[in-house]
Amino acid sequence: MVFNRAMADAQPHHGNRHGRSEAAREAVLRAADDLLVEKGFSGVTMEGIAKAAGVAKQTVYRWWGSKTEVLMDAFLEDAAAALEPPDTGRLDSDLRAHLRDTAHFLTTDDAGVVYRALIGQAQHDSELAQTFRSRYLDDQRTRDQKPFLRAIERNELPSDTDVAALAEWLVGPIHHRVIVTGEPVDDTFLDAVVDIVLTVSASSHKKVSPNPERTN
């Protein structure tokens, strides 16, 4: 698990006033990640998290109400640190780099295990589903759109480009394979996705819908 120190420092500090609260918080988040990878979602408990983190169970419950809340915070910190699109100066290389980072994050990093666990739990927990959308998806959509917005500023794309739709078409296929089909997300696949998105972005100056109606 990757912790962003600057971001962590910006978070509200909880617990005692003696400088140990942030270290304990990070230990809890790291322990939750590790236990999920080792034991799966059903094997993670608040008691187990506290023991693995070396903190009192009351400390964990003071900051989080459930293991799902702990895992959500762990995932959000990882996502903010790992899924910020790089700025290479060109749309083509921006998209390829960002898509590879996203694929690695979801398929190789421990955060991908947390992501799949949260998605699975959200299928029968409407409150978690709403929290996941509001705390992760909105911010991630903003990050995913940045390469296209920069391309507009560099005049690589027209100003009326529908960046929301292009961003969904860019990352959507990865999530589909990770969550639904289980098919490999290799470089050949990623390059093909980028090539399609670049073709669409270059050939159309019209705004397009991310959910076009199907015709029979």
Describe this structure in words.
- With 216 residues, this protein is mainly α.
- It folds into 2 domains: 16-65, Orthogonal Bundle (Arc Repressor Mutant, subunit A); 83-203, Tetracycline Repressor, domain 2.
- It is 69% helix and 0% strand.
- The protein is built from 10 helices and no strands.
- It has helices at 5-10, 21-39, 46-53, 57-63, 67-82, 91-107, 110-122, 126-153, 163-181, 187-203.
- The chain is elongated, with a radius of gyration of 19 Å.
- It starts with a helix and ends in a 13-residue tail after the last helix.
- Mean pLDDT is 86; it is low at 2-19 and 205-209.
The low-confidence parts are 2-19, 205-209
What is the overall number of helices? Answer: 10
The CATH superfamily of the largest domain is: Tetracycline Repressor, domain 2
CATH level-3 fold name of the largest domain: Tetracycline Repressor, domain 2
Bulk shape = elongated
Multimeric state of these chains?
single chain
Order of helical and strand elements: HHHHHHHHHH
Specify the structural class.
Answer: mainly alpha
Main attributes of the structure:
Arc Repressor Mutant, subunit A; Tetracycline Repressor, domain 2; mainly alpha; 2 domains; 69% helix; 216 residues; 10 helices
Topology of this structure?
Elements (H helix, E strand, L loop, with lengths): L4 H6 L10 H19 L6 H8 L3 H7 L3 H16 L8 H17 L2 H13 L3 H28 L9 H19 L5 H17 L13
Briefly characterize the structure.
The protein is mainly α and 216 residues long.
